[in-house]
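Case study: Glycosyl transferase.
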Amino acid sequence: MKIAQIAPLAESVPPKLYGGTERIVSYLTEELVAQGHDVTLFASGDSVTSAKLVPVTSMALRLNPHVKDPIPHHVILLEEVRRRADEFDALHFHIDLIHMPLVQDFIDRTVTTLHGRLDLPDLVPFYRAFPHHPLVSISDHQRLPMPPVNWAATIYHGLPTDLLRPRLGATEGYLAFLGRISPEKRPDRAIRIAARSGRKLRIAAKIDAVDRLYWESEIAPLVEQYPHVEFIGEINETQKAEFLGKADALLFPIDWPEPFGLVMIEAMACATPVIAFRCGSVPEIIQHGVSGFIVDSEDEAVEALRHLDDVNRAGVRAAFDARFTAQRMAADYVALYQDLRDARTASTQMRALRKEGAELQIV
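Here is what the predicted structure looks like once written out:
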């Protein structure tokens, strides 16, 4: 199939550091190419891909100090996609909602994966205005706040099987927190849980400008207060395998409706169990007692850490291999693209039959 992948421009594909959506776009694009599809990636010019790259901007917008407003750049992206839309069997958007009015004339060849939270009040009237666009959720829980829309599928994220190697030997006795410093990610919980369990906590996380005050007022003082906490900062993909693989467990103490939680399956790929709070997608991703433990409080998290030896690390990796590989993710999307094409073919045939029947009545 000829497939277009349309990525956000904030980060490159794959991103240099933090960037979950762009990372998934990269894994999907590369796997589709590996499976023999003709793929074109619309993304920033510093992206690296085996697909055909359409470089809409010279570099990722977040890294360009001259960019003050991302909207004009995304409008240019949409114009380039519109101009070339007829070249593709399927156009797969990863840019949330800005493209919706544009694609109405070729909506039967499009699908949009919604990567973010959907419980924001402004989204309800928007999706009511565009109820027919085929949408993909990344967990079933993500769908709950939405009005009636055209859900085409729930497709879980996946990682290349050789991206993060499982570590089945001895660990280094610390707990890991990986991702982003923000109130909803609850690094404060992670610090307290580690302190109560008597384990060291290593935090590898990005601090966005919007969360700088939260870091300075809430989290940095805790890091200084507890000698068991080490803040590392952002890490790249090559550092992630060692960081997660050497940890006793990943702490995922979120306090928001997490749409998916990519770091959970990254830990699973490293054979590292996950201690996750029961929010958002967590019950869909973590198999309690197999790939980690699902908890409802800090007390339960501390207790779960006492039972880490009950979790077989090879079994954690097996749970990843069974459900969260890039091969499975790409196969699910190809099936969806094929459904779009089949529906289009059936619709065309139905219109032809109706036209033929009308002509016979006229005669």
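For the exam, be able to explain this: The two ends are 41 Å apart (CA to CA).
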